[in-house]
Write a structure and sequence with these properties.
alpha/beta, binds adenosine-5'-diphosphate, six-stranded mixed sheet, 400 residues
Length: 400
Amino acid sequence: MGRIIMEARDIRYRYPRGMEAIRGISFHIRRGEKIALVGPNGAGKSTLLLMFNGMIRPDSGTILFDNAPIQYDRASLRMLRKRVGFVLQNPDRQIISPTVYQDVAFGPTNLGCRPDEVKEAVERSLSQVGLAGFERRPPHHLSGGEKKRVAIAGVLAMDPDVLVFDEPTTGLDPSGSEDIMELLEELNQQGKTVIISTHDIELAYPWAERAILLLDGKILQEDVPDVAFGNQELVRKARLSMPTLLELYLELERRGFRLPERRPRTVLDMLNVIDRAFRNKPCYTEPGAISLIDINAPGEVDLPVWRAAHPGISIGAMGTRAKQYAVDKNIPLDFTYGVIDKCILKALLGEDSLIIITGSMVRRVHERVEEFCRENQVRIPILDLCYARKGDDPGGEVPV
Ligand code: ADP
C-alpha cells in the first residue's frame, strides 16, 4: 500500500448564502489508489473535489497534501495545483485556447517552463491521451471525447501526482465513456493517483479500488466497492441502485449456492461464479414442488379448500382466463407475469408454489421446468392436480 497522499480531517463547508454542502468529512487517500466518490446529485461530490486542489477552502477542519496542511497563499496554491490536476466535468469550461497545442501548453508555460520543455510536455501528454498529431486543431471542432482528452492532456502536461476528475464521463456515449475509463486505468498504471466523482455506480464498481459513498455532505460508507455498494439499504438511501452483478451474486448467495468468496466485478468474474455455483452441488434444501391446477380439467379441484390446506403457498396464474378465475374465487395472486420462472426460483429456495392454468399452457410449464432441471441438474417436482377429483388426494407426481 502506498503512503497517504491526501487526507481530510473533519472538514466542513457552507456556500455563501447557501446550505452546508460538506458536513464533517474525514478520509485519507493513498498514493497510487483509484478512488470513486459516489453519490446522487447534490451529495457534495464536486464541492469536495474542489477542495483537493484548494479551489474551495473548508470553513473548518484541515486538508493535508503529502502530510502537510494545505496553505492558501498564492505560491502554495500554485505548487499544489501542479501536483493535483483537476479535470472539470465540462471540457468547454476547461479549454480556453484556439489550438490544441496552445491549450495543453498553457499550464507548463504558466509555470515558467522553457519553450523546449513546454514542447516536450505537450507532445508527451498528447500522446498519453492518444491525440498525437492534434496540435494544430481548434479544440472546439473536436468531438466530446476528444475535447475531454485535450482537457486531460492539459492537466497531464504539468505531470501531477494526483488526478481529480469530476464526473469524467458526463456527456459521452457508452463507448466514449469506456475509452475514458480505460485511459484513467492506464494513467493509474503509470503511477498516478486517480480520484473520480460519479453518480454512475455501474461505472465506478469495476473500476475503483475504494469507493466513498456520499450523501448530504457526509460519508455514508467507505470501503472496497463490493462492500460499499453491497448494502442494499445504504445504496437505496443514497438514491442509487446496486450494481447488477453484485445484486445477482448476493441473490445466489441468499439461495445457498456455494460461491467463490471474491464478489464478481466483471462479466468474466460472474461467469466464474455461475460456473462454480452449478458445478458444486448447491447446498440449499430439497427443491419445492410446483403444483398445477387446470381450470378446464374435469373433476375440478376445490381451489379455496386446497389453498386452506396449503397456507402461505405462493400462487401464480397464467393466461387471462386463469387470472379471471382467481379473481372470481377470491384468490390473491403473487405472480401474474414471468410465472414459470418465479415458481422455479421459489422451488430452488425449497418452497412450494401453485400455478392456476388452462390446458394449453400445462405443457409449456413442463417443458420449461424440465429444461431448467436438465441444464442445472436439479429435480423440481411438478404436481398435476388437474385430473384430481374433488376430495381425491391431490397427488400424482409427474416425473421430470
Ligand atoms: P454533487 O457534485 O454531488 O452533485 P455539489 O457539490 O455540486 O454536489 O453540491 C452540494 C450542495 O451544495 C448542493 O446542495 C448544491 O445545491 C450546493 N451548491 C453547489 N454549488 C453551489 C454554489 N455555487 N452556491 C450555493 N450552493 C451550491
